[in-house]
Amino acid sequence: AEVEESIKRLFTFAAWSDKHDGDIRNVPIRGLALSVNEPIGNIGVFCSDGFPLLGLVSTMAAGLSMGNRMILICSEAAPLIATDFYQILDTSDVPAGVVNILTGAHTDLAKPVSSHMDIESVWCFSSRDISKVVEKSAASNLKRTWVNHGHEKNWKSNEDIQSFLSAATETKTIWIPFGEG
Which pairs with CB-CB distance under 8 Å and at least 24 residues apart come from 1-9? Predict the structure, then answer.
């Protein structure tokens, strides 16, 4: 069941890759505000133990669909699922270095990943303690974090698609003046 859900999730995020775009808004003063969603860059993810494959695929697909590079710290309970999945990525058209999968204890990897200066965002779907370490360590360079504080996510639901897409992008806004004034 988790494999089928993972395949569906890949197709879901692939379909969203060209739809989570910016917006043009009128502003009270003569002009327009152009908002553009851009990729964050490098995103580190601490995957859940609850659904090791679906959680890994969901976070990876969300980040990739928005143009990011992913560092996935796989589930501690079932790391072999991630290493098997990596073989699929290795034989597909995914460029080298776009998806990196790490195995190991989240307690050992939380601080170095969260404080790494070349990682722009860290998502944590691990335990409450790991969430705290991630938030504390990420503060050293004002890194974006998305943590669950130990609450298990409903990985089978598609309700959080927009949350994933928003967490995988940063919105840049440009004000464009026009008219006489």
Answer: 2/51, 2/53, 2/54, 3/53, 5/51, 5/54, 5/155, 5/156, 6/53, 6/54, 6/57, 6/58, 9/54, 9/57, 9/58, 9/61
Q: Which residues of 17-47 are buried (b: 16+ CB within 10 A; e: fewer)?
A: eeebebeeeeeeeeeeeeeebebbebbbbbb
Q: CA-to-CA distance for 137 and 140, rounded, in angstroms? A: 6
Q: Where are the domains of the chain?
A: 2-177
Q: What tens digit of pLDDT does each residue of 25-78 get?
A: 888 888 889 999 999 999 999 999 999 999 999 999 999 999 999 999 999 999
Q: What is the pLDDT of residues 156-170, one digit of tens each?
A: 888 889 999 999 999
Token digits of residue 80? 């072999």
The pTM is what? 0.91
CATH 3.20.10.10 applies to domain 2-177: no
